[in-house]
Amino acid sequence: MGLPKTSENGQVSMQGADSRTSIPRRIVGGLQQPLPPLAVPEQQPPKGARTVDPGGRRVVVRGRAGRRLYAIDGIRLAAALMVAVHHYAGTHRVDQPGNAIWGRPVSEIMPTVFRFASYGWIGVEIFFVISGFVICMSCWGRTPRQFFVSRVIRLYPAYWFAVLFTTGVLVAVPGVWERLRLREVLLNLTMLQSGSGVTNVDGVYWTLWSELRFYLLFLVVVATGLTYRKVVVFCCVWGAAAMLAPVSDFRLLELAANPEGAWYFIAGLALYLMHRFGQDLLLWGILAMAWLMGQLELGQRIDEVEHVSGWRGSVLIFTVFLLVMVAIALGAADRVQGKWLVTAGALTYPLYLTHYVAGTALINRLRDTMDARLLVAVVIAGFLVLSWGVHRLVERPVSGMLKRGLDTSFARLRNAGG
Question: What is the pTM of this model?
Fold first, then answer.
């Protein structure tokens, strides 16, 4: 983040690596925000912050705003492992007599594991909250072009591998999942198959459709230049649209507002604003609303999709997670570091994309060869190793090539426009 500068009319603004616009900044109740100037008492800056005093007005730049939060990398991997264990040993599908994966109810095979694994689906909601936080953090000060390029190179390389890998496994290990037609597999490579009514190669891809709609909406805010005020307004407007969409009988609004996932992303955005600017009552109010709407969605998902876990336990897990994220946002985990956490974060996306269909197909073939609990652990360990390979051998080189190609393409567009 750059240093504050004084404009010709005496306003204090922030300009630098994380800001493309000049925005008035003030400290109100410990909050750095782009609001009209207010008379405030002198305050001690937070530890690690930089303070300047042009024209007799103090501006505090939070020292934590641009730092990597290693704890979030660890939480992301934990959420992915929760989802994987749930898919292998905690879903309604695997607890049915004669199911294609285990052959008999998994609650009879490993009842204790099933009891805990039945709550693992909450890892998806955790992903959505973290996505809201991380996207807001990574987009601050970026242009729409940079935002677009960052999303493409982050999402597509591992996803392309996952589509081809999973299809290959289904060819090699038939009988558990139905294989899609070639034209449907090819359309899956776009990541836009849900918009065309085409089935996902792997059921876990449904979350990507939710993510893409979030990116499209947030791109509008990025294009105008991110500020505290604009992100707050975005949270409120999107939240209102998400509440109105289900009763509006307007399909386009429901599709754009994404009522099933909106409030989780909004929670992540509010948490990042707490991290960057400090807490205030408005942000707590947005977070509280996100919790209230989230607990309702959790109950609906249990009733309509999961059928294996309880509402109270699900809400408890989600509440504890939000409180942990609040602690991280406010600096409680600033000293948590470690290269292994960076690696953990890098494994998360490939693990999530590849584990479900391919993993359950393998369990079907190996279920009589060893103890069921050991088999689940071995399969997860195998997919962790695969994920490391995907990160090193696919994501890194392909992302680099994509970035260079997209940068060149956008440079041509800019020059042609000139």
Answer: 0.84
